[in-house]
Design goal:
single chain, about 400 residues, alpha+beta, 7 strands
Length: about 400
């Protein structure tokens, strides 16, 4: 089980339920505030993938505002689907501004190299210890890839697509720059494509509508681009525009220390305790960092289980940065369909959820439990691989 699975459906969730007794009241207050705001909804009926696709699209656009990093999960998703090799995906990641200056031996493993405020984390080191973070997939998993074809003919058009994506982002999406209507529409279209590829990293690619285009033959870049038509991007484009118009983007900039256009605000998808979330970012401020999560819920009446879990996830994400690698001192969540950004000082937030019980003791308890569960999962995976020769 992943750390998130343990938090939502296992012992970590049980611990939070019993210790973070102020979370129900905190979730209720958030819900009450959200109900005061109008909600952006897509026009007409949409297919079931639309909601998560719009969420991924917005997160990718925000990620580009924060840091010019590779779309990690999108590239890994293409590899998992069998459309490209892992080495191809690493080569594409190595061309992004964050990773291009790395020494050659690290660029060859670019997707394993993740930035921190002061250096880099190497995911391979974590996998060597038994983690699965950024896994390049076992031979058993390769046998179930959906689109493997001799010669990997999809690599060439996808390489051209990613070259165009990088060029367009370099021209229109410098860190901290929100463009005009035409540029943002183009960026949303490209983020929609990347979000589709991202889907395949943690899900079965055959279920996503975009991957139908790969079933018969390698598509052209034009054919890929046409899948992100004006109708499907209208909703995520509206979410992107609201991010700016609501003032939330300006507040995020201030949380990052108000850097000038072109200077990164922080880190996209930071890896904490062998896990990263595609909707989580780090804003590096002068007095420490803010851990930011972006959600695109339509319904705000989640003051019970779902709302509490989100609050738990934010607090424990900061707690699990046990080496203080990211210097997290504040938490924030942006509700994209409402255009509302909440932010809290970490200590005050912990105190409210714990109802003023000792935060240091609680953190030590939680981290110890998380470490025990992680080690148990590692041992189980190691035993399985030894048994199956994986």
């Amino acid at each position: 089980m992943s750390i998130i699975s343990h938090l939502y459906h296992g012992e970590l969730g049980e611990w939070c339920q019993s210790r973070l007794t102020g979370s129900e009241e905190a979730a209720r207050r958030v819900t009450e505030h959200l109900r005061e705001h109008a909600i952006i909804r897509p026009e007409g009926k949409v297919e079931r993938h639309h909601w998560s696709q719009a969420d991924r699209t917005l997160a990718l656009r925000l990620g580009a505002l924060i840091q010019p990093a590779p779309p990690y999960s999108a590239l890994l998703g293409l590899a998992r689907a069998g459309l490209v090799t892992r080495s191809w995906a690493d080569a594409q990641a190595a061309r992004y501004p964050t990773h291009a200056p790395l020494p050659a031996h690290f660029r060859r493993r670019a997707l394993d190299m993740r930035p921190t405020p002061d250096g880099w984390l190497d995911l391979q080191t974590m996998r060597d210890a038994g983690a699965t973070v950024g896994d390049d997939f076992s031979s058993h998993e390769r046998d179930h890839r959906r689109f493997s074809r001799p010669g990997l003919p999809d690599e060439a058009p996808l390489a051209e697509l990613f070259e165009r994506i990088r060029a367009y982002f370099a021209a229109h999406a410098l860190p901290g720059h929100f463009g005009g209507p035409g540029a943002e529409k183009g960026l949303t279209r490209l983020c929609w494509l990347l979000g589709s590829f991202q889907y395949a990293y943690r899900n079965d690619s055959v279920e996503h509508p975009l991957f139908r285009i790969f079933r018969d033959d390698a598509p052209t870049v034009t054919q890929l681009h046409r899948t992100a038509d004006d109708e499907v991007i209208a909703d995520p484009l509206a979410l992107t525009q609201r991010l700016n118009a609501s003032g939330a983007l300006s507040r995020m900039r201030r949380l990052a220390g108000d850097p000038p256009v072109g200077r990164p605000w922080g880190i996209t998808n930071p890896v904490i305790f062998e896990h990263w979330d595609d909707n989580v970012f780090l804003l590096n401020g002068p007095n420490g960092a803010t851990l930011l999560e972006v959600v695109s819920l339509v319904r705000a009446d989640d003051a019970h289980t779902r709302g509490r879990r989100r609050l738990w996830k934010m607090l424990t994400g900061a707690w699990l940065d046990t080496a203080d690698t990211f210097r997290i001192r504040a938490l924030a969540v942006y509700f994209a369909r409402h255009g509302v950004l909440f932010s809290w000082n970490l200590d005050s937030y912990a105190g409210f959820l714990l109802e003023d019980r000792d935060p240091d003791k609680a953190r030590k308890e939680f981290v110890a439990l998380a470490a025990r569960l992680r080690d148990t999962d590692r041992a189980r995976r190691t035993a399985w691989r030894e048994t199956h020769g994986a």
